Amino acid sequence: MEKVKLKKSMEQAVCVLLLLELEKKYTPIKSKKISERLEVSDSYLKKILRKLVVENLISSDVSKDGGFSLARDLSEISMLDVYNAIEGRGEFLNLSNLAERVFNDKKKIVSREMDIMKVIKEGEELFLKKLDSYPLSRLLGIIDKVERK
């Protein structure tokens, strides 16, 4: 079975969030320091950081002593949050109706496209649900807030 491929930026985003968690007392970290620590391009990392800021996973302080820090507790950030920040919230697949150029029977085409979309939608829902059930705090062995109650 072929694997689902995610962008490398997904891994980088998770590592950024974990790095920020490990920084004592949430001291802001400059992007340059993060990119050096992860050994990734600073310009590429800034694009990832921007996406994480937009999704309110991290915050940015542009002051002299500023940098990036977590905007929420790590136990409140799921893999789905990171996925949405990096990949966006659009559907997995949008058909471009190429089948109409191959087959003549439009009824069958519509029926098969609906079948395909149903299977993909069900898979997408399972995938997203699984991501949502995995808080990043689990990667560090931190007890989830839900478990504390």
TrEMBL record:
Pfam families xrefs: Rrf2
Entry-linked InterPro entries: Tscrpt_reg_Rrf2, WH-like_DNA-bd_sf, WH_DNA-bd_sf
Protein name: Transcriptional regulator, Rrf2 family
Source species: Gemelliphila asaccharolytica
Higher taxonomy: Bacteria, Bacillati, Bacillota, Bacilli, Bacillales
